[in-house]
Amino acid sequence: MTEALLSAKDVSCQFDGKTTIFSGISFDVNPGDILVLSGKSGSGKTTLLKCLAHLNLYGGKILYRGKPPTEYGGIPVYRTHVLYVPQRPSLLPSNPRAFLNTVLNFNARKGKNAPPDPDRPVDIAESWGIDPELWDRDWASLSGGEAQRIALSVAVGLGMAEILLLDEPTSALDAETSALVEKELTSAIKSHGSNIKALIWITHSEEQGKRVGTRALHMESGHVESVGAENHV
Ligand SMILES: Nc1ncnc2c1ncn2[C@@H]1O[C@H](COP(=O)(O)OP(=O)(O)OP(=O)(O)O)[C@@H](O)[C@H]1O
User: Fold this and answer.
1) Which residue CA neighbors atom 13 of ligand 1 most closely?
2) Of 79-83, 128-132, 193-197, minimum mean pLDDT range
3) If DSSP codes are grouped into helix, strand and coil, which group holds residue 217?
4) Is 38 in the pocket of ligand 1 (CB under 6 A)?
5) If DSSP codes are grouped into helix, strand and coil, which group holds residue 107?
């Protein structure tokens, strides 16, 4: 049997050391998967993505290609393979250009892969209606939709991670722009120039989930269940 790209095994999370948000969550993510994660507001979707990115403490095991993050040179390196793309990137310091340079420098220090094209995120963002000048403006001065598109364009355009953890990636976008972003994200996992092999995608839109997903998980009462006849987890 081929090894899963990402495995969650009996994962649980508490937010104050005693109140459980969810428990007993187990699933695998394989190459080609676009795993749609749904559930009511407050059901724990963002918290689960943050656990998968090792941004939250959790119980159980989360393995990337069968190994824990420590075997990839530590959690910061792991996070470049399994990348969380936040819903509100305006909480980042400084401007998008500085963020892009930080990511590029970090990748250069890893030194393993051919360097990604630094212009590609700017080009992708422009195709989504982002003026290149916005890259030099403070995150805090950008609209939610502008910041969201820029953060996504860095994740997709540099294509360094194998798994993108997308937290409502089109929540701040109009329908037309949302369709463009959906197209780019879903084709990224088929692109030869990209390392991206799978997506986990939080959405509140059932229609979007059906359009983009190859599999689906629904969070409810602190657990997840697979959804739909063709979407077995
Ligand atoms: N650090 C924290 N302190 C207190 N409560 C927290 C903390 N982190 C998460 N929670 C609570 O855990 C629950 C799950 O939050 P989470 O953001 O994961 O939900 P969600 O399903 O992503 O919600 P939404 O769809 O509204 O984005 C919520 O009730 C939230 O208030």
Assistant:
1) 42
2) 193-197
3) strand
4) no
5) helix
Q: State whether the beta carbon of 86 lies less than 6 angstroms from ligand 1.
A: no
Cα 200 to ligand 1 centroid, rounded to whole Å? 18
Say which residue the tokens 């194998």 belong to: 162
CATH of the domain at 177: 3.40.50.300
Q: Of the candidates 188, 196, 176, which has an alpha carbon nearest to the alpha carbon of residue 212?
A: 188
Residue 31 located in a structural domain: yes
Give tens-digit pLDDT for 68-84: 888 888 888 888 899 99
The CA distance from 192 to 110, in Å, is 21
Task: Indicate which residue's Cα is closest to atom 29 of ligand 1.
Answer: 42
**How many domains does the chain divide into?**
1
Residue 152 located in a structural domain: yes
Nearest C-alpha to atom 4 of ligand 1 is from which residue? 15
Q: What is the pTM of this model?
A: 0.92
Query: Which bin fits 142, alpha (ψ -120 to 50), beta or left (φ > 0)?
Result: beta
Which tops the pLDDT comparison, 208 or 79?
A: 208
132/53 Cα distance (integer angstroms): 29
Closest Cα to atom 2, ligand 1: which residue? 15
Does 148 reside within a domain? yes
Angle at the Cα of 165 (from 135 to 163), degrees rounded to 5?
100
Which range of residues forms the domain containing residue 144?
A: 6-226
C-alpha span between 216 and 202 (Å, rounded): 10
Distance (Å, whole) CA 144 – CA 9: 34
Q: 30 burial class (0-12, 13-18, 19+ CB within 10 angstroms)? A: middle
Residue 233 lies in a domain: no
